[in-house]
Amino acid sequence: RKEVEQDPGPFNVPEGATVAFNCTYSNSASQSFFWYRQDCRKEPKLLMSVYSSGNEDGRFTAQLNRASQYISLLIRDSKLSDSATYLCVVIGSFNFGNEKLTFGTGTRLTIIP
Amino acid sequence: NAGVTQTPKFRVLKTGQSMTLLCAQDMNHEYMYWYRQDPGMGLRLIHYSVGEGTTAKGEVPDGYNVSRLKKQNFLLGLESAAPSQTSVYFCASSYHLGTSGPTLRQSYEQYFGPGTRLTVT
Fold first, then answer.
1. Cβ B50–A97 below 8 Å, yes or no?
2. Is 50 exceeded by the pLDDT of residue A94?
3. What average pLDDT score do residues B22-31 get?
């Protein structure tokens, strides 16, 4: 089983719709979680952190389910500019003296006009 | 601030040739990283550095070497390029990796360069 797994998609969603996707992780000792956004042929950029209590940033909501070992990202009122690949990042077991970041392969989202 | 810059942006090599990718950051970050990104594989850590003069192996270090002679620069070398090294290479830096940052985001956020597209024929 991969350490971090994401549905690669693509998710094709009409503008204005709500879309959600999950990311599962295998290491129950994982400490912290993040969502990054990567536009086509660009570098990844941090979108938001994922806290145990869940957190919201405008139209974006991130949640953590430790019992089932997944994190989720919900996008409301989707915009054309939301089209991108969304990478989940899991801070896993202690590795190189600090913490090991593991990136998922990403979920591709396309918002359709 | 330029953030994280990478040179070159594109390169085509023949098998057996060597090259060096340069990464520079102007944010005074301690930590720097080299990743490669391949379709269906996600970002994989090649080497990283926790400070000037230090380097360490990541997940896929074979075939690569690195050096961090100055805090702001992190070089990735390919001594004898192979077709399997065809990939997009991203450099990243972070304030720290761990709990020393004042917030969770500042502890872990990595800033990426624009990438280098390398093709080895």
1. yes
2. no
3. 93
